[in-house]
Amino acid sequence: MEKRYFTIGMAGHIDHGKTSLTKALTNVDTDRLKEEKERQISIELGFAPLYEDQEIQISVIDVPGHERFIRQMIAGVAGIDLVVLVVAADEGVMPQTKEHLDILKFLGVKNGIIAITKIDRVDEEFIELVKDDILGELTGTVFEDAPFVLVDSLSKKGIHEIKELIIKTLKDQEMRDAKGAFRLPIDQVFTVKGQGTVVRGTVYEGTVEEGQVLKIMPKGLEVRARQIQVHHHSAQKAYAGQRAAINLSSVSKEELERGAVLVSSEHFIVTKTIDVAIRVVEDLEHIVKQRMPIKLHIGTAEVMGRIVFFDRNEIKEENGEILCQLRLEEEIMTKRGDRFILRRPSPQETIGGGWVIDPGANKYRFGIETIEELEKKKAGTPRERITAALMEAKSLTLTELIKRTALDETTLTDHLANPEFVLYNGKEYTLTLLIAAIEEDIFDQLQEFHQTHSMKAGINKAELLQSLQKRFPKSLLDFVVENGISNGVFKRKEQFVSLATFVPHVPKSWAKRTENLLHDLKKDGLKVRYLKEYFSAAGIPDSIEYDLRKFLEDQNSLVQLDDQFAYHGEVFMEAVEKLQSGTGAEFDVGAAKDVLDLSRKYMIPFLERLDAKGLTKRVENKRVWKK
After folding, report:
1. What HEC string does 296-357 produce?
2. Can you tell me the distance from the alpha carbon of 513 to that of 511, in angstroms, rounded to the nearest whole number?
């Protein structure tokens, strides 16, 4: 099963117990700075490992709750998969909690748990009032149906329950895209003595490997990932959903800042003008005016700019989505679909948030024509809609694509003729890039398997595809394997799949001992000792004995008679030829013993092996040679 990686966030009002709850769950104090200890508030983002098993790894971000540290809060929440909304039992929902709720909504966070903390400070009746208060505030938000857990971080009440709920919720959730281009918005930059510059952040998508050449955007600085750490442990790779610290070569701390993005591909757009779809908060205190200064929070970046409307000159209140443009003072790196928050710089307040329609926008004229064009962009081009549908479903029929994209059949078939789309099985469509990603995954699995099990012909096909079946339909996986075989990437022997270039072989460390074993076996001819004795004499350990026996049998170097005895392959074939020439079309055990001069303990297993190999067929007390 493919391991999945998630980051969860603790959000809520100042002093409602987020840091204490994080410590109770992880045994890690995430208040790192001296001033945080003194003032008992979180200024910077705090991180801790929560849970790990063979299936899943979960990290926690404790995001600051004080309104002065809203930037850090947004930077933390932007990369998380689940939010634990912390509300103190003795205070209930506070203004900062409401602002956090708005931010979570605009950032598209859909999974949440409500933790009512400090329950030992109030009685049960008061807790019920707090619950009602919270339910009232959560109506219409992403937390409307979120489960409640009552906890007290000091006495550890409810800590086990909330941890189990977090684990269960995330085990049922899809992880971020690990197959896309690597992207990590940087939220911390520091230096380590003797190591150099280190950046830290949450991997939004893709995978990074030690030694990989990367770019710092938007500046375009080329760097190399010298070392990778995940929660203070060295790692060869970091995956989407993980918190990672990466030691970079060829760059100084002074050249970097929070808001820059570490990427593996140049396909992302660097821009100062973006078309967006926004929604505003319900209780907007001040009118949002045309070309008003705004502060954009996207990923971990905070950039000043102006908001430009094309169908109005101000917003007083608005329930629907507004299509508009942001013109920024500094370059950012983003892509379609990225979420963001808009804040007023003075007086400070959250205006709203939304998503990027087009990161490579142009300047347009005021008027309904521009809004109509933005509506088309928002819906996406036919190609974008088809790609998005296939990225989500992985494989769709033409009928399913018509339903998902709202495109007519003629338009669809015209675009599906493009090489980036592939028809397989005569009825299902997928993406060329998905085929390449699956093939690469299978290739990596096989390569790793061959290194560990060099004597095996390959992996059983069902086992090979097992880890991929949660993300891709079986029909698509089968097609990729068969396509890979046709293209000479893979080969198959019976139910086993291997790399086309792989040849099973004995590991170098055991080659000489195997040669000695076969030499001794051949020297003893037909009157062999127990096979176990040959392995022991050759110094071959029990741990590889089974695989080596199977390999030698597949290579016809050894023929197993039964569980105890085996012949050298050449000795066995010579015995077959001798027996065949010394008997007629049929023979019995006595005749075979006369020809080969073997006792019953060898003779019976030998004859049964002839039957098993299809060389003879037993008929009553005799055997008949097959032609």
Report:
1. EEECCEEEEEEEEECCCCEECCCCCCEEEEEEEEEEEEECCCCEEEEEECCCCEEEEEEEEE
2. 6
Quote the pLDDT of residue 1.
54
3-class SS at 571?
helix
For residue 77, the model assigns a pLDDT of 55
Q: Which pLDDT value is given to residue 406?
A: 66
In 3-state terms, what secondary structure has residue 211? Answer: coil
Among the four given CATH numbers 2.40.30.10, 3.90.1150.10, 1.20.1730.10, 3.40.50.9100, the one describing domain 272-378: 2.40.30.10
Which run of H or of E encompasses 371? helix 368-379
Where do the structural domains in the chain lie, given as residue ranges?
Answer: 4-171, 183-263, 272-378, 380-505, 510-625
CA 144 to CA 151: how far, in whole Å?
Answer: 20
| DSSP category for residue 205 | B
- Give the pLDDT confidence of 107-138 residue by residue, as tens digits: 777 788 999 888 888 888 888 888 888 888 88
From 1.10.10.10, 3.40.50.300, 3.40.50.460, 3.90.1580.10, which CATH number describes the 4-171 domain?
3.40.50.300
At residue 70, the pLDDT reads 54
Structure tokens at 615: 């060389």
Residue 292: predicted pLDDT:
95
CB 430 within 8 A of CB 420: no
Q: Give the residue among 225, 237, 296, 235 at the shortest CA–CA distance from 262.
A: 225
Q: In CATH terms, are 4-171 and 380-505 the same topology? A: no
CA angle at residue 439 from 436 to 442, to 5 degrees? 150
For the chain, how big is the Rg over CA atoms in Å? 33
* Residue ranges of the chain whose pLDDT lies below 50: 30-44, 65-69
> Length of the chain, please?
627
Determine the Cα–Cα distance for residues 107 and 445; give it in Å rounded to an integer: 35
Instruction: Please say whether the beta carbons of 33 and 39 come within 8 A.
Output: no
Mark out the alpha helices in 147-301 (DSSP H runs): 159-171
Instruction: Report residue 369 CA to chain centroid gap.
Output: 42
Q: Tell me the backbone φ, ψ of residue 184, rounded to 5 degrees.
A: -135, 105
* Range 555-587 burial, b when 16+ CB lie within 10 A, else e: eebbbbbeeebbbbbebbeebbeebeeebeeeb
**What pTM, to 2 d.p., does this model score?**
0.64
Instruction: Return the CATH number of the domain spanning residue range 510-625.
Output: 1.10.10.10
The values of phi and psi at residue 63, to 5°, are -90, 145
d(CA 468, CA 435): 12
Provide CB contacts within 8 A for 57, sequence distance 6+.
Answer: 3, 4, 5, 6, 49, 51, 230, 242
CA quadruple 68, 70, 71, 73: dihedral sign: positive
Q: What's the pLDDT score for residue 37?
A: 40
Angle among Cα 217, 218, 224 to the nearest 5 degrees reads 25
Q: In this structure, what token pair is assigned to residue 236?
A: 């060869």
d(CA 278, CA 528): 82
Q: Which CATH superfamily is domain 183-263 in?
A: Translation factors (2.40.30.10)
Domain made up of 380-505: CATH architecture = Orthogonal Bundle (1.10)
DSSP code string of 18-62: HHHHHHHHHS-----SHHHHHHTS--S-EEEEEEE-SSEEEEEEE
285, 155, 179, 297: which is closest to 240 by C-alpha? 179
